[in-house]
Structures are given as C-alpha cells and as structure tokens.
## 1
Amino acid sequence: MGFLGSVRSVARFRLPEWNTARRRLNRSANIDDLRRMARKRLPRGVFDYIDGGSEDEVSLARNQTAFQDLEFHPRVLRRVGEVDPSVDLMGRRIALPFVLAPTGFTRIAHSEGELAVARAADRAGVPYTLSSLSTRTIEEVRSVSGGDLWFQVYVWRDKGLLAEILERVAAADYSTIVITVDTAVLGRRERDVRRGFTLPPKLGISTIFDGIVHPGWTWDFLRHEPIRFANVVGKSVGDGTDPVSLSEFFATQFDPWLNWDDISWFRDRWQGKIVIKGVQSVEDATIAADVGLDAVGLSNHGGRQLDGAPPPIELVGPVADVVGDRIAVICDGGIRRGSDIVKALALGASACMLGRAYLYGLGAAGERGVDHALGLLSDGVQRTLALCGYPAAEGLERDAVRWRTAEWSAGGRSDSPSQEPSD
C-alpha cells in the first residue's frame, strides 16, 4: 500500500468552513461559549445590559448555582428508546419543555432582534414571548412566525393604551399574555449606572472607542433604522425615540399601584391564557391559583430586580406541592443547560422560561446563534432524560433529583431523595 496509501486510509480531512459565524458556532459546545462570543462582539455597555443583574448580583449568581445543589438519581435498564421531550402546557402541546422569555430592546444584540428569535422559536416548536418593550411590533413578529406567540405586559399608567395593545395582540392571534408583576420600581442595575447606559444606546464621544473595537456590531447598528419601543411609537408614553435611562422610563411610565384587584381588568379584556410572572413565594402562587390564572411564572426577573430574592428553582417544589394541581408552574431564571430544565420538571414545573440563553446566541451570531442555543438546550434535555432513565419529559418523577443537603455534602446521605433544601 505504501506510505501515502496508509495515510489516505486513515486520514479524514475536514472541509474548511468559510462562514465566520458558522465556524465559531461549530466550536461552541454550550451556552457559556455563546456568552463568551457575545461578549467579544458586543460593546461592553450592551453586553452588561444583557448580562448584568442588580446591586451585588447575588441573586443573578444564585439563580444558576442553585441548580448545582440538585443532583440526579438515575435509573438504568428502563427501555428508554426514543426520548419524547414534548409537554402539555396550558392545554397546548409544545415540542420542548421551555418558553422563550420576553426581553426588552432585543435589537441592541442584533439588528434582526425579535424577528430572528420568533423565527427560531417557531422552528423549534416552542412559544416565544414578545416584550412590551420590544423593538419590533406585535404585527411584524406575527408576520414571520406561524408558531405560538405570547405577549408580555408591563402595565402602563395609560390604561387606554394598554387596552389598545391587548386588542392588537388578540387580532394578531397571540395565545397568551404574561403580566410582569415584579417591577413596582426598577431594581438598581449598577453595571448600567457605571456605564451611563441608555436606551437606545448613544454613539457619541464617550462611546466612539467602544464602537471602533466592536466594528461588526457598530456597522450593524448604524445601517439599520433607529431602535425604538416599536409598539408605542407616537403614543403618550416614552417610545425610545430619544435616549433615556431605564430608571427614568420606569419612574414616569409604569404603574406601581398594580394589585391583585387589577387582574379582573385584564380578564375583562383578554379571552386567552394569562400567566403572572414575577411570583417569589408560595403565598402569592396560591393567590394566583385562587383568582383563576392559568400559570404562575416563578421568577426574580433574572436577578435584575430585588437582589437577595430566592432562586426560582428553590420555589418549584414547594409551589408545585401546594398549587400544582390547579395552575401551571413555570420556572424562570438561571437556565443554561437542558439538564437544568429536566431538574425543574422533576421538581414539579410544567415548563421553564429562559431569556439570556438565547440572547447570548443572538448577540454572538444573530438568528443562527439563536438556533444554535435552542439546539444545545434541546439536545441537553433529551440526553439528560435518557441518562436518567426516562423516555418522556412528562414521565419524570420527583425522585429523579435530590437536593445535596449540608449533611450529604459532608458525607452523609438523606433518606428522602426528594428532600427540600434546609433553611
């Protein structure tokens, strides 16, 4: 055969990938890799707006690390076969057990913004939640997606405008509204304060160097239409036409008097499903079930509001035990892997909600990056289910996971696989 023949028999040369974004994505093994890519591409102020939390960012960190306090209790020889990751959520079958969370001003990550995310969600078979502070309109997003769309409601002081928006959402065939209730005031996001971050971002003397060292983002930003709060342009609330700090915007436009009695106002004007997002206690989850809402979103706003709020994953078990038979339970916060989603489902969540995970993909490589992020999460869910011995997401049992208590970490063993964390 000779030397060259021997080389040809074993060598398998990979064809070069000329597309830069695709080449980078091929080397991205997880969501943290996408985060690092986004950090390199985006100006620091933009990245910090996406990545940061409030004050000391304790809740931001604990949202993720709390998942590490859970370990699996795998079973073997269970005839896993082909894994089914789909679940029923509020009467609809979704292909994967998660929902894409609302994120404001999405076009600061990439010019396609919400349109890219909506298309990716449609392909993945999961709902996408459009933010009240979106940079594409309700109608524009529907025009690119035939999938299940939700709309997140920040409650304006102008109830006439809010009623008009709900009418538009219904006309565009969105199935669900998500009322965010953890923003009576804006949390102190100190990364934004240090950088003087505004929406839309200002490109002036103070940011010209940042623009030079991030030319891809800067060119994308400059050659597209101005970024605005698309659904309220020309209305009585601020629409992002002029740069404004988030604290100024919240102080002047958001209604801090929203209370449980106001939920009936939404019921009178909305015939679809209603999710309340920002619940952080069993007591409030119980009220949500009592007033007839369809789902409760356990969330501390991604660690961006009250620093020191509980990690949502720690609330899933207690909330599901009390109201899980009456209302869907959605865990929102800290999701970075498919295994995180499986842990939440095992504790009793109906589904999870995630935002930063797909924003990192969008910031890293646009729509292709969102596809990659959702693919990583999908693969992770299916692989984890199989390795734990469960052929379907809906077949997960509570004893599929257990909390690593202080006693367990010290070398002891809990008698109860599903023991909740101690105080």
## 2
Amino acid sequence: MRIAVADFGATLQAFEVPDAAGIATDIVLGHDTLDKYVAADACFGANVGGYGNRIRASRAMIDSKASHLDRNEGLHHLHGGRVGFDRKPWRGAACETGDALVFHRVSPDGDMGYPGRLDAWVTYRLTAAGALEIEMTARTDQPTHCNLVQHSYFNLAGGGDITGYIARFDADFYTPVDDDLPNTGEIRSVAGTPFDFRQPNLIGRDLLAASPRPDKGPSSGLGYDHNLVLGARKADGLRDCATLMNPSNGLGLALRTTDPGCQFFSGGDLSGTIKGKGQCPSVPFGGLTLEAQIFPQAPECDHFPSATHSPGQTYRHVMIFQMFHNRAVPPS
C-alpha cells in the first residue's frame, strides 16, 4: 500500500492498493498536478471545512448569535465556503515512525464567516493490518462549528463506473433533502426506500429512484447524495459505517468512524470535462464518496448531533479504511 498527500487541502492524491490478483490499483480520483487541483471544484481527496456538507441559507446559530457564512451554492453554504480548508495550503511533515503524514493549518477568526481561530490537524497513517487511518483534530479559542470531512472519491478499479459495486451501510435511518439539496431536518427510516443498504446491494439498483431531482439531469443531483444515520459506537469508540466491494477485481474496503453520519455520494455530478490523472475524463458515477461526518444542517437542527466546538475541548474525528479482498470475509 502507498499513499501520496498534497499540502494543498491536505489532499489524498493517491492511494495504491493491490487487488485480489496483486495488481497495484490507485483507488482515489484526483489530478497529476497542483494547477489542476486549484482549477477544479470537485474536492478530489481534500479535507473540507470548517463545516463539511451543506448549511441552509448559510446561517449558523452559536450561543443565540447568528454566524453568516460564505454563500457558495446559491443561498447555501457548502464545504466551508468558496475558499474553505480544501482551497488552502496546509503545513505537512512525515512522522518519525515512517508510517504517517501529519498536516496542520490555522483558520483565523472570521474566515468564511466562522467565529474564532481554529487550529486543525489531519494525520494519515498506513497500518500493518492493511488499513488507512485518518485522524482529524482541532482546537478553537471561541465557540464555533467544526465538521472536518475527508472527501475522497473512491473507484476500486481505478477507472470505469461504480454502479456495479456492492455496498452495505450500517444505517437504519437517513436524513432527506429538498430540491435545493440541503437537509429538511427530518430523520426517516430507510425501510422500503432506495437508501436501504442494511443488506449488501448493487449501487446501481435504485440509483434513479434515489435522485432528489432526476428530471434536471446529471449536473443537478442525479443518484445518491444523502446523509445516512449510523448506528451506535462500539466498545472501541468506533461505529461500523460502510462496506464496499468491486466484484471485477476482488477489492473491497470497510469503513469505521467515530462520527454519527456518512454522506453517500455516487458521483452523478462528475463530468467528462474534468480530466483526472493521466488526462482520463471523470465520467458520471466514476467515483463515490464515503464522507463520515456530523449531519448536514446540524447547526440549525437541535435534534441533530451537535457540531458546536468550544475552547478547552479537542475536536476529534477518526476514519479507518480497512482494505480486503472479496475472497476473504469482510471485516465485521
């Protein structure tokens, strides 16, 4: 296994894993050069923040005070704004142990509308057990909202589309979205819906039925772009999140996380006009995201898990991507 991480956005630029036949496969979408990352808006591999995902009307309440965040998706706030953490340089270094890279950046008070200085760190570590561990931590000097999200697009074959992959999510509920794509504030059961992946299912099975607005075409929310509500933490502090398998090359991954939700995005908005590594076009459904997170719209929904982060606290978000081959039993 090998990873490459760029200082720009603390971006996971490459993640090479041997498939079941031992062939090295780069399983994340991205670009070959820095200028392509700067010019693109797909967040390939980046760590997004201060708040990953959407906040309706770009308004977030903290201690009865409204923070007016940067509007970068119509009236709404997405992934930290126009110049969020994914658009900023981080300071990176290799750990002395040789198995990890750590990145740090400072977000000043008022950056994209967020109150308080936020010091953020992200650590990427490869383990002898065949996993990639990502740990995100942060500290602030004022009450603020913090939801750091890793935004890699996965393609377990290194190319083609992902509709033939088999996915399972440990999620009994999901949070619906409206035609504008922000969450409505509801929590609904997945039973009898296209979001029921409690048993392994083909991603392409109910792709169109899951679309928030399929009549408006691929650039307007075709396929999955929804937050799934994960089960309770286990004794080790992690939640089971997702298992993803590619039947064509026998490669799979299982994700566990500390966070309560996961944005499953099936890549319907990807366009052939976006040229990825080796100048290959990023076709619709050419990659999917597994964005472990606090729920979208949480700053305005008291019944959602809190995203408020206060001085004296340490924000911590862990994701563990355990790789396996289909001939093996997927990790439980």
